[in-house]
Specification:
Radius of gyration: 20 Å
Shape: globular
Distance between the termini: 24 Å
Length: about 260
C-alpha cells in the first residue's frame, strides 16, 4: 500500500511538471506570443498566465493548491484551467496502471517516460493542434535505444514499426490531399505513429490505428450531432488525432503480454 501511495504521489509531481511543458513548449515554438522576450523553457519561474505574477512554491502543490485556491489565481482571481489537476491526476493514474502491468523495474521507468510524453503531446495537440517535433524525436530515440539495449521489443520489429508507422500516415496524408486538394492530417501525426511503432513494433500498428480512427470518428459524429451540422463532409471535420493515438496505444499496452 505504501508503494502504491508513493507511485501516486510521484505521478502527481510528474503531472505538475508535465503541465509546465504543456504550457511552455508551444510558447518556445512561437516566442512572439510570450510576454517576456528572454523566455526560457526550463529557467523561467511559474507565473499566472493572466497577470504574470510569480506563483509561490506553496501554491504549486499538485491538486492541493488547486483546491485551496478554489481554482483561481490568488493575485488576480482569474480562473485556473481545470486541465492542470486533470493532467496531474491522469499522470498518477498512468503510473499506477504501468506499475500494475510491469511492476517496479527498468521497464516501469521506460514506459512511464513514454506515456507521460504521450500525455504531454495529447494535451498540446488538443490546445494548439500541434505535435512538437522535440517530443516526437525523444520518443523515437528512446524507443530504438530501449529495444536495442534493454529488450523492450525485438529491434527489427521496432525499426520496421517506426518506418511503417510514418509511411502509413504519410500515404493517408497524400491520398487525402490528392482527393480534397488540401491538407487533411498533419505530419506530426506521422511522426507520432512512427514513434509508437518504434516502441511497440509493426504488429500492433493496425490495432492502434484502427482503434484511434474509430474513436476519432465517434468524437466527430458526437460533435457534429451536438452542433447540428450535417454529416455530408465528415472527412473534412478537423480534430486533434494525437490524443486518440495515445489512448489507443495505452489500451494496447495494458492488454499486451509486455
Amino acid at each position: 500500500m505504501e508503494l502504491i501511495f508513493s507511485i501516486l504521489l510521484l505521478g502527481l509531481m510528474l503531472g505538475s511538471l508535465a503541465n509546465t511543458f504543456i504550457y511552455r513548449i508551444p510558447l518556445s515554438l512561437y516566442p512572439n506570443k510570450v510576454t517576456s522576450s528572454n523566455f526560457k523553457l526550463l529557467e523561467r519561474r511559474s507565473r499566472c498566465t493572466s497577470c504574470e505574477e510569480i506563483i509561490p512554491i506553496y501554491h504549486n502543490i499538485p491538486i492541493v493548491s488547486y483546491l485551496y485556491l478554489k481554482g483561481k489565481c490568488r493575485f488576480c482571481n482569474h480562473s485556473i484551467s481545470l486541465m492542470y489537476p486533470i493532467i496531474e491526476i491522469s499522470t498518477a493514474c498512468i503510473l499506477l496502471l504501468i506499475y500494475l502491468k510491469v511492476g517496479i523495474n527498468i521497464f516501469f521507468f521506460f514506459y512511464a517516460i513514454f506515456f507521460i510524453l504521450l500525455l504531454i503531446c495529447s494535451a498540446i495537440d488538443i490546445r494548439h493542434r500541434i505535435l512538437p517535433n522535440s517530443i516526437n524525436y525523444v520518443l523515437v530515440i528512446t524507443g530504438v535505444l530501449g529495444s536495442y539495449f534493454f529488450g523492450l521489443i525485438n529491434i527489427y520489429d521496432s525499426l520496421i514499426g517506426g518506418i511503417s508507422g510514418y509511411l502509413i500516415i504519410f500515404f493517408i496524408e497524400k491520398t487525402y490531399a490528392l482527393i480534397y486538394k488540401k491538407e487533411g492530417i498533419g505530419r506530426g501525426d506521422a511522426k507520432l505513429l512512427s514513434a509508437i511503432g518504434f516502441w511497440f513494433g509493426w504488429l500492433n500498428l493496425p490495432t492502434i490505428l484502427l482503434m484511434s480512427s474509430s474513436l476519432g470518428l465517434l468524437v466527430v459524429f458526437i460533435q457534429k450531432f451536438m452542433t447540428g451540422n450535417s454529416y455530408k463532409n465528415i472527412l473534412e471535420f478537423k480534430i486533434p488525432f494525437g490524443p486518440f493515438l495515445s489512448l489507443s496505444t495505452l489500451f494496447v499496452f495494458l492488454n499486451s503480454n509486455y
